[in-house]
Amino acid sequence: MPAPAPSPAPLLDALLGPADLRKLTRDELTQLAGEIRLRIKEVVSAHGGHLASNLGTVELSIALHRVFDFSSDRLLWDVGHQAYPHKLLTGRAARFHTNRQQGGVSGFPDPKESPFDLAKVGHSSTAISTGVGVAEGYRRSEHRRATVVVIGDGALTGGMAYEGLINAGQLKSDLIVVLNDNGQFIDAPTGSMHLHLDRIRTGSMYQHLRKRFLETLKKLPAGPQIEKLAEQLELAAHKAISPGYIFEDLGFRYFGPVDGHDLALTEEALQNVARLKGPILLHVMTRKGGGWQPAVADPLKYHGPKGFDVSSGVFQVKPPARTYSTVFAETLAAIANEDDKTVAITAAMPSGTALRQFGQAHPERMFDVGICEQHSFAFAQGLAIAGARPFLAHYSTFAQRGYDQLFQEVCLSRDLGIVITLDRAGLVGEDGETHHGIYDIAWSRCLPGLVLMAPRDGAQLDAMLRWSHAQRQLPGRPAGYCIRYPKDEVPQVDWGVQPAPLALGKAEILRRGDGNLMVWAYGASVKVCHDAIADLGEHGRGITLVDARFAKPLDGALLAELAAEHGEILTVEDHVLPGGFGSVVAEEIADRGLRLRLHRAGIRDELVPHASREQQLAAHGIDRAGVAKRIRAILGIGTTVIPFTRTA
């Protein structure tokens, strides 16, 4: 559905580029900030996207582009879900109504879209590392350019942010890090850095340090040396005066905090640090929602909303959809009620993985470790060693960040039986290239000791979670069970068969045909194939449909059995073709020496741009119409193709 025509924004729409900002008066800049916020609300309400975080960076974005010339200087946004104002100020206001739509503006910074976007970003805590490299590269080539990184406080829960800070401090890089501190992550703040920033926000740093100093003094033996006491006093005084001492210890010069909604103050602070050399951290405090009361009151609700009234923030009432994530949450709660050893872990995504309600019901058994996917796998290992039974919930795209720990801490332990759910597996729609979960079969199936599963519907997801939990309590359990499912509603389908009980590596025949073609589908693609075969009418009656259920181990015995009756096989998956489910089947055919002509349907070996999930599936021929078309081609329906047939 196209977005409504945007409201008039005379200043915003008249901007030819960021340089025009320097011509505006203070009153005009205030008006411009209002126009930007309204444009963002209108477009996000129509098409979805990130709202509260972007409403909070309007003045900061204006100040950055007034102080620096990013046609020569360099600007990096960490994550990018706070960069909509930056996009509007850099020549994309006229096309912003296409945000996250097929062929339109990306929801994240993208160099293909604008020279003002230095790098494609979508995952958190990476920009400081990139910024250090940019600053050092220009230093080596003797280019005099400022390098500025804007990073949210939530990103400071990610270890890679500190790797970048440490490297910059060591190299003495000419790097300006703007810490956009809004006291909010996507979900509730977590981690000790949040507590440190809280003390800065509330102005209680001095009292905190004074209390720590007095407690230390009481513990000293009578008659301590004056030098030691003076040393302590000097340290306490320094830390009271410089609340950013943590960053200074890493080699940065700390400035702030500054009110990021006071445009004049923010500009002045940026101008001051722009003259300095070496690593600089400017602490800017903003509010998610940027003053719009609905988003200020509930920044989580308005983090990625859609379909709200732009004036009041009231949402259009819709019946809540039953998604795979919902089923996961319900089943996990039921398992936890039956087994007090059950614990849940996520990395800063309790809402996205539907674990918030679990955390409310079982707060002592819910762990949000922050943006620390690597840590989450090792943490799960420790819990399992100590006798707990962890469920580790990740988005597929974010789980990639913990890959080494999946191997080192989970697989090498051999028998921990950790259940790993991969939400948002497959194509995810408007978030695009950075967020697709289309690689997890390939990167996980090569690791020994992992069982890979994918449900075709909600009932099967429930069954897989319960089965995995039961199996891991038996002797000889594997290292882990990986269950992938899409960002989608669970289908309501009469499969025409009584669901077969789950057994390790056993597929299920949903319909047995008497023709030459069998279709093996994995996960969400089962429903697509079921509907596509139905669309073929009489031509579909002879087709056998198999729900693989497991990609590792594959049901090779059933494949061999059906190969005696069929000459051709089509595999269908919501995953890239290289290394995916079709590759699993191809290897099994080769290893068993089966006489089958293999056809594979999946995602081509290319980056998939943002669009709706339906458009993305169609573009790769793995939607209902695309699979039906592929089957017609294999069968030679309406073509001159002679289908492959078995010879005696």
Task: Report on the architecture of this protein.
The protein is an alpha/beta fold and 648 residues long. The chain is 40% helix and 14% strand. The strands form 3 sheets. It has a 7-stranded mixed β-sheet, with helices on both faces. The relative contact order is 0.08.
Topology, element by element:
Layout: H1 10-14, H2 26-47, H3 52-55, H4 58-67, E1 74-77, H5 84-92, H6 127-140, E2 147-152, H7 159-171, E3 175-181, H8 192-202, H9 205-219, H10 226-241, H11 245-249, E4 253-259, H12 263-274, E5 280-285, H13 293-297, H14 324-338, E6 342-346, H15 356-361, E7 366-368, H16 373-385, E8 389-395, H17 396-399, H18 403-410, E9 418-423, H19 440-445, E10 450-453, H20 458-471, E11 480-484, E12 508-511, E13 517-521, H21 525-535, E14 544-547, E15 550-552, H22 556-563, E16 568-576, H23 581-592, E17 597-603, H24 613-619, H25 624-635
Parallel strand pairs: 1-2, 2-3, 3-5, 4-5, 6-7, 6-8, 8-9, 9-11, 10-11, 13-14, 13-16, 16-17
Antiparallel strand pairs: 10-15, 12-14
Kindly list the characteristics that best describe this protein:
648 residues, alpha/beta, Rossmann fold, 25 helices, 40% helix, 14% strand
Q: Report the CATH C-level class of the largest domain.
A: Alpha Beta
The tally of helices reads 25
Number of structural domains: 3
Could you tell me how far the N terminus lies from the C terminus, measured between alpha carbons in angstroms? 55 Å
In one word, what is the shape?
A: globular
CATH superfamily of the largest domain: Thiamin diphosphate (ThDP)-binding fold, Pyr/PP domains
The structure class reads: alpha/beta
In round numbers, the mean pLDDT is 89
Overall strand count: 17
| CATH architecture identity of the largest domain | 3-Layer(aba) Sandwich
CATH fold label of the largest domain: Rossmann fold
Q: Reading side by side through the largest sheet, how are the strands ordered?
A: 7-6-8-9-11-10-15
Low-confidence stretches: none
Strand percentage lies at 5-15%
Helical residues, percent: 25-40%
Radius of gyration: 28 Å
What about the largest sheet?
7 strands, mixed
